[in-house]
Amino acid sequence: MIDDIDRSILTILQQNARTAAAEIARQVGLAPSAVFERIRKLEERGVIESYTVRLGTRMLGLGQVAFVFVRADERAGAPITGKALIALPEVLEVHHVAGEDCFLLKVRATDTEAIGRLLNEKLGAIRTVQSTRTTIVLDTLKETSSLPLPAATRAPGRSK
To answer: Contact 108/136 with Cβ under 8 angstroms?
Structure first.
């Protein structure tokens, strides 16, 4: 269960994971030691899985995004295809999906030519890949890894 203080701490950390505990404590009205303890418990419970750095994709020359649907010719979750897709560095996300296709990938590359090489040389080399359908992104209006946090739930029969 996540209370209002935990939700505030998580919101601050999602905005900047390097925010000092003293600053978080100031914002939520707790002692830094209490903030450290809450963060430790959130980590232990798996609410906080990791801390990451978000890189400037355009500054690194990786401004082209595409979404690729992949159809595989294997059954039962397509484990061979899934492992091969996960191994490709250009592939940022691999989602096993329901419907005609087996996987939805989010990929990033330098340009459309690099996406073409990925499709032809790398995805085409995976023997279980039957077909792909690709959508090239023209402009990204929103991209975030921050999750919307659920409202605090109260135990039945308890009032505010």
So the answer is: no
